[in-house]
Amino acid sequence: MFRRKLTALDYHNPAGFNCRDETEFSNFIVWLEDQKIRHYKIEDRGSLRNIHNDEWPKAFEKYLKDVNCPFKIQERQETIDWLLGLAVRLEYGDNADKYKDCTPDSAKITDNAAKNAEPLINLDVNNPDFKAGVMALANLLQIQRHDDYLVMLKAIRILVQERLTQDAIGKANQSKETFRVRLDKHYAVLNEAAQILRLLHIEELRELQTKINEAIVAVQAIIADPKTDHRLGKVGR
Fold first, then answer.
1. Which residues contact 77 (CB under 8 A, 6 or more apart)?
2. Is 15 among the domain residues?
3. Which of 88, 195, 212, 226 is the most exposed place for a label (fewest CB within 10 A)?
4. Domain that includes residue 78, residue range
């Protein structure tokens, strides 16, 4: 969660920083004060630099008060984030000329947003992971499959926007009107279901016909028996 600020401050290991490791954390605080914040004079940093001393937590607690940090020593993540923010502000102030020609992040974000107004424009539709993800979503949302995965993804987006946003769910919960289904939107699915039912029905008819044929054969076998008395409907002895 601190990687971006650590990178901006040229920390030697922004990706692997572990604030739960006591030694790494103490060294980090010393580095932050020595290199970026510099609130104390060099000769006053002795207690903070002595990270192996049992009194170091007290020295750190005093340091937080001296820099007016609103968080306590027990709130480690909040404390680190606040100190990093302070360091970034001081770093920018000390190097204003270095950053004066840089484009603000907000301007870059706005520019990128304008270039990518259509969020699906840069997707690689042939990527196997993309196809698997779209298919999984389609199955979950019961959206009909399509040969074009981009079309399926757009259908998923529309469904989410219309049915699954917080606003849509809230309106659905408040509404007491009967929900009407537009059959034209679901024609393909209904047609497929009808075909399946028709095939099942045909299969049942075939099974029934088979049983009828077997019964006819059995009756014919009895009639053909010379011991059968057709007038009495009984088999003679």
1. 1, 19
2. yes
3. 226
4. 3-102
Q: Is residue 147 part of a domain?
A: no
Q: In which band, very low, low, confident or very high, does the pLDDT at 25 lie, cut at 50, 70 and 90?
A: very high
At 1, is the pLDDT very low, low, confident or very high (cuts 50, 70, 90)?
A: low
Task: Provide the residue type at 183 as one letter.
Answer: L
Q: Can you tell me the mean pLDDT for 156-182?
A: 64
Query: How many domains is the chain partitioned into structurally?
Result: 2
Last residue of a domain, one of 81, 102, 123: 102
Model pLDDT for residues 35-93, shown as the tens digit of each residue? 999 999 999 999 999 999 999 999 999 999 999 999 999 999 999 999 998 998 888 77
**What is the DSSP secondary-structure string of 114-163?**
HHTSSTTTT--TT-HHHHHHHHHHHHHHTPPP-S-HHHHHHHHHHHIIII
Contact 134, 160 (CB under 8 A): no
Domain stop point among 102, 125, 159: 102
165 is written with which tokens? 């946003």
Question: Is 139 inside a domain boundary?
Answer: no
